[in-house]
Design brief:
single chain; 300 residues; two-stranded antiparallel sheet; 11 helices
């Protein structure tokens, strides 16, 4: 019997923003990958020294989301954990980690498509996974906040939403007596100038808990464009995008509630994308005060 995974993750295998998506070779060779080949080997770097090492290494980086993704992949992922694969606006794959962190393993980097990556983990990918669209899992695939992280831990409302969507799709497939088909992987090298047909409309049902957008909008209006944890003023950086970037966080998680309930303005915290992700890095989520105590600096 397969043990229950300790953690669930969402990953994307795209080489840089707007770069090539390497999900197909990862599927073919049974791996998850991260980082360009100039990234340093983390094999002998203790977790307690990672932040300092990464910040000052010439091939590291100062981005919080970048640092967090590499820390997750090297230190927090464990054998037996589950990875969901994001490609574009869909979850297209699912697999279970079967091996430890590896730095540019020789048997894999010989492949031209995998030579552009630094960090590897062996994964047993499912071959019959039904793709999940953004309409079915908006929290997991939303372009606000979550997209900043290449390696994102899934818990709380995001995980509940994704598991419900997957269960719904698999149930529909069994009722229809069919198994969702995965497009055939091209043999050999990728075909240049490949043309496919996309845009077909499809309708699927999913059960989820309805959130009231009006109270979130009012709370954002009262927030003056500031994160309640770190004080980051989005209006100073993003002009008219400020309130769209902020995220309304339920202080008492709505996911998993057995019945409807009343929500007041004081039950909502307005957070920047980074603090919202950090809030959900534990289960149950951290409180505002708990996360503030972990801050190295504040924008206030």
């Amino acid at each position: 019997m397969t043990a229950k995974p300790k953690s669930y993750w969402r990953m994307a295998f795209r080489a840089g923003q707007g770069g090539r998506d390497d999900w197909q070779p990862c599927l073919r060779y049974g791996v998850a990958v991260l980082g360009n080949p100039k990234r340093p080997d983390l094999s002998n770097v203790p977790k307690s020294e990672f932040r300092t090492f990464w910040r000052y290494h010439p091939a590291g980086g100062s981005s919080g989301s970048n640092q967090g993704s590499h820390c997750n992949f090297r230190y927090r992922m464990q054998e037996g954990d589950v990875i969901y694969v994001k490609s574009g606006a869909s979850i297209v794959g699912k697999g279970r980690i079967t091996g430890p962190y590896e730095y540019r393993p020789a048997d894999l980097v010989r492949n031209s498509r995998l030579s552009d990556w630094a960090y590897f983990r062996r994964v047993r990918w499912e071959r019959d996974f039904p793709p999940i669209t953004a309409e079915m899992a908006p929290l997991t695939l939303s372009p606000k906040g979550a997209v900043l992280f290449t390696v994102l831990r899934l818990d709380g409302e995001r995980l509940e939403e994704l598991l419900a969507a997957e269960k719904k799709l698999r149930g529909s497939s069994k009722q229809e007596g069919t198994t969702p088909r995965r497009p055939r992987e091209p043999k050999g090298r990728m075909v240049k100038g490949l043309t496919v047909v996309e845009g077909k409309r499809a309708k699927r049902e999913i059960e989820f808990q309805v959130r009231n957008r009006a109270i979130i909008a009012e709370k954002k209006r009262q927030s003056e464009g500031k994160c309640e944890v770190c004080g980051f003023a989005t209006a100073d950086q993003y002009s008219d995008l400020a309130h769209d970037i902020l995220i309304g966080h339920h202080l008492v998680p709505l996911g998993g509630a057995a019945r409807t309930r009343k929500t007041m303005l004081d039950d909502i915290a307005i957070l920047c994308p980074n603090c919202h992700q950090a809030m959900h890095s534990t289960s149950p989520p951290l409180t505002v005060k708990q996360l503030q105590r972990k801050l190295r600096f504040s924008w206030d």
